[in-house]
């Protein structure tokens, strides 16, 4: 059975809100939003430049941030890219994973905007 990950786990976000306060949470969530958009652009550029190590590092960093904020599907999409970019890799594989990443990122951002920002 395949594990289903939350697009945006509200319990994680609520826990974060308790920790940082309701005034700070939107600032942190907006920062994450900006990081997701920036990471997408960076990973696309790294792939085009055949800078796979940089792409892997970018995916790793975003994976950690996404999971911390409850964007578990996005964290898994980043994990898939990070894993594929380790060792011998076909660029077509990473291209396919980036497409899947963008779909999850867009859905995650829509939910974030709708429910929290």
Textual characterization of the structure:
The termini are far apart. The protein has 117 residues and is an all-alpha fold. α2 (25-48) packs antiparallel against α5 (91-115) and α4 packs antiparallel against α5. It is elongated, with a radius of gyration of 14 Å. It has one domain (10-16, 23-115). The chain is built from five helices and no strands. The longest helix is centred in the C-terminal third of the chain and has 25 residues, at 91-115.
**Low-confidence region ranges:** none
What does the average pLDDT come to?
94
Give the helix proportion (percent range): over 70%
Shape, principal axes of CA atoms: elongated
Strand content: under 5%
Please trace the helix and strand order, writing H or E for each element.
HHHHH
Distance between the termini: 34 Å
Give me the secondary-structure category: mainly alpha
Biggest sheet features: none
For the record, the count of structural domains works out to 1
| Radius of gyration over all CA atoms, rounded | 14 Å
What's the number of extended β-strand segments? 0
Q: How many alpha or pi helices?
A: 5
């Amino acid at each position: 059975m395949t594990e289903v990950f939350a697009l945006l786990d509200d319990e994680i976000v609520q826990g974060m809100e308790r920790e940082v306060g309701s005034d700070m949470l939107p600032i942190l969530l907006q920062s994450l939003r900006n990081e997701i958009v920036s990471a997408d652009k960076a990973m696309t550029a790294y792939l085009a430049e055949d800078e796979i190590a940089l792409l892997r590092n970018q995916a790793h960093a975003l994976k950690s941030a996404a999971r911390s904020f409850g964007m578990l599907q996005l964290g898994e999409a980043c994990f898939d890219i990070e894993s594929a970019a380790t060792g011998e890799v076909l660029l077509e594989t990473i291209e396919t994973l980036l497409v899947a990443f963008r779909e999850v990122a867009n859905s995650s951002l829509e939910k974030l905007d709708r429910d929290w920002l």
